[in-house]
TrEMBL record:
Source organism (scientific name): Pseudomonas songnenensis
Pfam families referenced in this protein's UniProt entry, alphabetically: Acetyltransf_3
Signal peptide: none
Boundaries of every N-acetyltransferase domain copy: 11-151
Source species, domain of life: Bacteria
Entries under Gene3D superfamilies matching the protein: 3.40.630.30
Name the UniProt record assigns to this protein: N-acetyltransferase
InterPro entries found in the cross-reference section: Acyl_CoA_acyltransferase, GNAT_dom, N-acetyltransferase
């Protein structure tokens, strides 16, 4: 059996999923404010499927989407991690994904979690690059990704395949971070 990677930061545990994470995950993914830059809200069944896919990915690869838990309260607050990229990329890459409950915003927790994920990606996993995408109008994601050192490839912008061209989230920007550029 493959040993799963668990990560920690000063305030967070990036851990395996627990069955009791389903209810807070479903509440979070049904919140229009949390999901405002996503193509759709997620149902409880969608969230259960996400947890199953994440658990299977960990079994196969040791990493994936980690559940985020605050150390101080032991509360589940969201997720952050790496998933197979479905974006237009010339090379196979892993995509940085995250979502955090609104009451946790503005504390730097996503940045802290994403840094731990990128440290793992480029250190322990030895990945050559990580990608991410954000709707062009998603300023919080743009600030996060640029704060992590990721570079926008505006020439590689693309239309979200699930959204009509006139939809405000249709235009997506691809971001990349190469291992050699991490922490420079």
């Amino acid at each position: 059996m493959v040993e799963r990677i668990a990560l920690e930061t000063s305030r967070l545990r990036l851990r395996n999923w627990h069955d009791e994470d389903l209810e807070p995950l479903a509440r979070m993914c049904a919140d229009p404010e949390v999901m405002r830059y996503c193509s759709a809200l997620m149902s409880r069944d969608d969230c259960a499927a996400l947890m199953v896919r994440s658990r299977l990915h960990f079994v196969r690869h040791r990493f994936g989407l980690w559940a985020l838990e605050r150390k101080d309260s032991k509360a589940f607050i969201g997720y952050c991690g790496l998933a197979s990229c479905s974006l237009p990329s010339p090379t196979p890459a892993l995509e940085l994904l995250w979502a955090v409950a609104c009451d946790q915003w503005g504390q730097g927790l996503v940045h802290e979690a994403a840094q731990a994920v990128l440290d793992c990606a480029f250190g322990e996993l030895g990945l050559p690059e990580v990608v991410a995408c954000a709707a062009q109008i998603n300023e919080p994601a743009t600030q996060l990704l640029e704060g992590l050192g990721m570079r926008a490839e505006h020439a590689s912008s693309f239309g979200h395949p699930d959204l009509a061209p006139e939809h405000p989230l249709h235009l997506q920007v691809l971001y990349r971070l190469q291992r050699g550029d991490w922490r420079q």
